[in-house]
Amino acid sequence: MSDGHPNPKQHWKNRRRMAWICLFAGVCYPGLVLATNDPVIGTIAGPYLIFCGGVIAAYIGFASLEQRK
């Protein structure tokens, strides 16, 4: 796993938590858009979902890279 981390079990804890929160928020966001029917919330949907996808993709990519070491 991680060479210099003092607690290897806790190394990915916050990163994993951030990825799960982004996944949950990305799944709930369309419901918020439909429930509020607010055009402003609808216009920022694209960048918001791209950001959430980027966080999740970065977690998966770095976790895979760490496993290969």
The CA-CA distance between the termini, in Å, is 8 Å
The quaternary state of the protein chains shown equals single chain
| Helical percentage | over 70%
**What structural class do helix, strand and pairing data support?**
mainly alpha
Beta content comes to under 5%
* SSE arrangement, N to C: HHH
Mean pLDDT comes to: 84
Number of helices: 3
List the domain count as a whole number. Answer: 1
Outline the low-pLDDT stretches: none
The radius of gyration computed from the alpha-carbon positions, rounded to a whole number of angstroms, is: 16 Å
Task: Sketch the major β-sheet.
Answer: none
> What is the 3D form?
elongated
How many strands appear in the DSSP assignment? Answer: 0
Could you please describe the fold and organization of this structure?
This protein has 69 residues and is mostly helical. It has one domain. Helices cover 77% and strands 0% of the residues. It has three helices and no strands. Helix 1 (13-36) packs antiparallel against helix 3 (45-68). The longest helix has 24 residues, at 13-36. It is elongated, with a radius of gyration of 16 Å. The N and C termini lie close together (8 Å). The model has no long low-confidence stretch (mean pLDDT 84).
